[in-house]
Amino acid sequence: GAGVSQTPSNKVTEKGKYVELRCDPISGHTALYWYRQSLGQGPEFLIYFQGTGAADDSGLPNDRFFAVRPEGSVSTLKIQRTERGDSAVYLCASSLTPTIGYSGYTFGSGTRLTVV
Amino acid sequence: DAKTTQPTSMDCAEGRAANLPCNHSTISGNEYVYWYRQIHSQGPQYIIHGLKNNETNEMASLIITEDRKSSTLILPHATLRDTAVYYCIVRVNSGNTPLVFGKGTRLSVIA
């Protein structure tokens, strides 16, 4: 597609429930990133995929958070046993993997998760 | 943690140049300066990046001091649509090292 697509755009869930957030990157972009943004803060890095594998998952806050990218395209961020503190906008970005130089990230518009 | 310091907020009159400063006194020799902006309810958008030479594109100009410890993003003729949070980020330019965002500067362009 023309841009990075994230679904749903909004998600309200009850505390303790499981949620999945989906990201469709730009076709051909091999790198995919997940960020989380709380109100008034900059985006916080969660995990980065290069192809199908997680190249860096150091930002995942705990083992309730997990992400997959089985075919190297679409990615799903999964949150188990949601807590009210998980409420935030979850942003996905994708980029080319250049051999030289830098390729800017293209971000989606995010999924606003509210845990009640 | 972010390696940059930016003012929390700035105002700019429509049609005037917006000059957004950024301090990055601990920048390493192989780190570039990147600028992104985030308009309300959207994801961040890439603006420009540079190493040590001044850079210009269709969106903005980037002026980096000779010692590379600070830089300024210049929007030459700010419009209301430039109202956004502007993030200054330092990052090595290799592979796909994740961007680390700080809190940025909230720029308000006023009619």
Question: Could you characterize the architecture of this molecule?
Answer:
The complex is a heterodimer of chains A (116) and B (111). By secondary structure, chain A is mainly β. In chain A, strands 2, 4, 5, 6, 9, 10 and 11 form a seven-stranded mixed sheet that branches. In chain A, strands 1-3-8-7 form a four-stranded antiparallel sheet, with no helix packed on it. Chain A starts with a strand and ends with a strand. With 111 residues, chain B is mainly β. In chain B, 0% of the residues lie in helices and 47% in strands. Chain B contains no helices and nine strands. In chain B, the strands form two sheets. In chain B, strands 1-9-8-3-4 form a five-stranded mixed sheet, with no helix packed on it. In chain B, strand 6 and strand 7 form a beta hairpin. The radius of gyration of chain B is 13 Å and the shape is globular. Chain B starts with 8 loop residues before the first strand and ends with a strand. The relative contact order of chain B is 0.35. The mean pLDDT of chain B is 94. The interface between A and B is medium-sized, with 28 and 22 residues.
End-to-end C-alpha gap of chain B: 35 Å
In spatial order, strands of the major sheet of chain B run: 1-9-8-3-4
Count of helix runs of chain B: 0
Mean pLDDT of chain B: 94
Number of helices in the DSSP assignment of chain A: 0
Helix coverage percent of chain B: under 10%
**Largest sheet: number of strands, sense, barrel closure of chain B:** 5 strands, mixed
Strand content of chain B: over 45%
Rounded mean pLDDT score of chain A? 93
What is the element layout, followed by pairings?
The complex is a heterodimer of chains A (116) and B (111).
Chain A: E1 5-7, E2 10-13, E3 19-24, E4 31-37, E5 44-50, E6 53-56, E7 65-68, E8 75-79, E9 88-95, E10 106-107, E11 111-115
Parallel strand pairs in A: 2-11
Antiparallel strand pairs in A: 1-3, 3-8, 4-5, 4-9, 5-6, 7-8, 9-10, 9-11
Chain B: E1 9-13, E2 18-23, E3 31-38, E4 45-50, E5 55-56, E6 61-64, E7 70-75, E8 84-92, E9 105-110
Parallel strand pairs in B: 1-9
Antiparallel strand pairs in B: 2-7, 3-4, 3-8, 5-6, 6-7, 8-9
